[in-house]
Design goal:
233 residues; alpha/beta; 6-stranded parallel β-sheet; 9 helices; 6 strands; 31% helix; globular
């Protein structure tokens, strides 16, 4: 089983072009739309609620579970792993990673975070490279504001066993060498360098590889999960 967690503003729809490549290899995918990203009321929704929603999916599955998270969804995956590290066979972060305990991505936010303009995203370093214009239109149409109670909340982790869970990082908008150097220089508040078992894979494209290179992303995910295109382990 692969539980697919979208990043900010996205729903399960973001993984639609990746899932066929997983299912063809025998991986049962479970793309999640997190609370408040489904058009429902966002008031009162917290980062803990997002972790609860994903943990409920994981707990309901029998057999091996891999958790895959894109960008800001990494905080959710990290908290799920922290709650029950023995339940997750591998955590895979797509252009993101686990934060340090107590870190919030937008601590000063006072309102739901709307999808910025493409120009603003590019200025922040969130590259749109490789996304066709029709996909950009779809992205803008389906995007939902991310709940303020999620974006402003700090990650809360305490279980040291989380550091032993095998982890993969798929680097798309930054090469892995640059990412690890930034973490080592305290330019990025990530605990990746503290994990016992981490693999880095470079997949050069923009920040949203599920939209720009979905088939290639599926191939990398298959490799990191440990199956080939035929489904053989």
């Amino acid at each position: 089983h692969a539980v697919l967690i979208p990043g900010y503003w996205l729903g399960a729809w973001a993984w639609e072009d990746v899932e066929p490549g997983l299912r063809a290899a025998g991986v049962v995918s479970h793309a999640v739309t997190l609370p408040g990203l489904d058009g429902a009321e966002t008031s009162g929704i917290s980062l803990g609620d997002h972790a609860d929603a994903v943990a409920a999916v994981v707990d309901a599955l029998a057999g091996d579970v891999v958790v895959v998270a894109h960008s800001g969804g990494g905080a959710v995956a990290q908290m799920v792993v922290d709650r029950n590290p023995g339940r997750v066979r591998r955590a895979i972060y797509v252009d993101g990673g686990p934060l340090r305990d107590g870190v919030a991505l937008f601590p000063e936010a006072t309102a739901d975070l709307e999808l910025p303009s493409w120009e603003e995203l590019a200025a922040r370093g969130s590259s749109l490279e490789g996304i066709e214009s029709n996909e950009l239109e779809r992205f803008r149409r389906l995007a939902r504001a991310h709940p303020v109670g999620v974006v402003s909340a700090p990650v809360v982790v305490a279980n040291e066993e989380r550091l032993t869970v095998p982890t993969s990082v798929i680097c798309t908008s930054l090469p892995s060498t640059v990412l690890t150097e930034m973490i080592a220089n305290d330019e990025m508040p990530s605990e990746l360098l503290e994990l016992d078992d981490v693999r880095y894979v470079d997949l050069p494209t923009g920040h949203w590889p599920m939209l720009s290179r979905p088939a290639d992303l599926a191939a990398v995910l298959r490799s990191e999960i440990g199956v080939d295109a035929s489904g053989a382990a």
